[in-house]
Design goal:
Number of strands: 7
Strand content: 5-15%
Radius of gyration: 33 Å
Helix content: 55-70%
Distance between the termini: 33 Å
Shape: elongated
Number of helices: 18
Strand order of the largest sheet: 5-6-7
Oligomer: single chain
């Protein structure tokens, strides 16, 4: 509400809403505009074309609003210059409207009121995905519009879409939730449509392609992820160049293990194990401890399988059918799986190699922790894995993998690369999108 009732009348009549809500200053605010809405007598002052003033009844009467309810249709602001209070009250009122009506399209006109009230109303409409308008008119001064000439829509879709993107993307990327981040970017581009300028549209498209590749890698769809990375082009940005190089090594290690072939130059063959550790870390940081420990279990088992194939020259695919292994299994009473692999390796190597490392690093401790995994919901039990178990296994198995590679004098090349988080938004080709 403002000093002149004319723009308010014009806005309401132009929009023809099902329900009218007045946002106005109220006592103890001096000269509160509430009186123009529901005041007695003729509280509204209208300026005629000749400059004279005519007083008329309140706005509810002039608009012929039937069964007006001040408790539901009047939002009183006692401190119209307090931005935080105005914004909080308007936002809360809008939330109440959405609870009252199953289908609610909000239209707000901010022609009147204090500057603070107008700013608070605009902020609330952007948050509520509402529509903003302002009344155009003839002014004879800076206090009021004397004659209203039309309602001007204020486009806010770009502001709404940009705000959602800036609020949601960093949180999703911090947790490596690439699927949710992808949805946010897709929603942003859908809202913007043809209004999105070419440079930002190109950045949004590039980010979508990068996120699609990251989603696939996070789901172990390595070839598809690498194919997308090659299509989108990772050259020119150091972080992405290093990530693609790491992916190439992981895929090469996977092929080496799947086909029982020696690793190619520049690949140790243990990259897949290291990437599983990174995957477990991402799950653990999200609080998905059962999932994280399941991946650590597989990483430890894969470490032993990779070692047996590369260092002991026994095809891991047919390990339990090997004659010498079958004899040891019968002699030691081994079961198939991680525990059997570990016990066989310790018996085979004694204090040397990975078998010796397992002894020195207290396999019984690992076994105790892994038993908690076996009792978890993702294995054979009903007891969730706690954070302490995950952290102990994450640290212990990571150290074991590092010690194994060091003991074998394996030249690893650049360190394993965790999937990027919020650093994606700092890439030169993406920064314009967040502006």
């Amino acid at each position: 509400m403002g000093g002149s009732p004319e723009p308010i009348l014009h806005a309401v009549r132009s929009h023809g809403p099902d329900e009218v809500i007045f946002v106005c200053s109220s006592p103890p605010c001096p000269a509160a505009s509430e009186v123009q809405v529901i005041g007695e007598g003729n509280p509204c002052s209208h300026r005629r074309e000749d400059g004279s003033i005519e007083t008329r009844p309140n706005l509810v009467h002039q608009l012929e609003i039937k069964d007006f309810r001040p408790d539901l249709q009047l939002l009183r602001l006692a401190d119209p210059d307090n931005l935080d209070d105005c914004h909080r009250r308007i936002r809360g009122f809008c939330h109440g409207l959405r609870q009252r009506f199953s289908s609610c399209h909000l239209i707000a006109d901010y022609s009147g009121g204090t500057k603070t009230m107008s700013a608070a109303l605009a902020m609330a409409m952007i948050e509520q995905a509402g529509q903003l308008t302002v009344v155009r008119g003839v002014r004879s001064n800076l206090q009021r519009i004397d004659q209203s000439r039309g309602v001007l829509p204020i486009p806010v879709s770009a502001l709404q879409a940009g705000r959602l993107l800036r609020e949601r993307l960093p949180a999703f990327l911090e947790d490596h939730r690439y699927d949710r981040a992808l949805e946010a970017v897709q929603e942003f581009t859908a809202r913007q449509g043809a209004e999105l300028e070419p440079a930002r549209a190109e950045a949004a498209h590039r980010l979508q392609r990068l996120l699609q590749a990251l989603v696939r890698w996070d789901r172990y769809q390595w070839q598809e992820a690498l194919g997308l990375a090659r299509q989108v082009g990772l050259d020119g940005e150091a972080e992405l160049v290093g990530l693609r190089a790491w992916w190439e090594r992981v895929v090469a290690a996977h092929q080496c293990l799947a086909k029982a072939t020696p690793p190619p130059p520049g690949t140790s063959g243990y990259e897949l194990v290291q990437d599983l550790l990174l995957s477990a870390g991402r799950r653990g940081r999200r609080g998905w401890f059962d999932d994280a420990v399941a991946r650590l279990y597989r990483a430890l088992e894969l470490l032993l399988q990779t070692y047996i194939q590369l260092e002991l020259r026994i095809d891991h695919r047919h390990f339990w059918r090997d004659p010498d292994v079958k004899e040891a299994r019968s002699r030691l009473g081994l079961s198939k799986g991680l525990d059997g692999l570990s016990r066989w390796l310790q018996d085979e190597e004694g204090d040397a190699g990975l078998g010796g490392a397992l002894k020195r690093r207290q396999w019984r401790r690992f076994r105790k922790l892994l038993d908690k995994r076996n009792r978890s919901l993702l294995a054979h039990g009903l007891q969730p894995v706690d954070e302490g178990t995950w952290r102990s296994l994450q640290e212990g198995i990571t150290d074991l993998v590092g010690a194994t590679l060091t003991d074998l004098h394996i030249q690893q090349g650049p360190s394993p690369r965790q999937l990027p988080g919020t650093s994606l938004l700092q890439l030169p080709s993406i920064q314009i999108l967040m502006a």
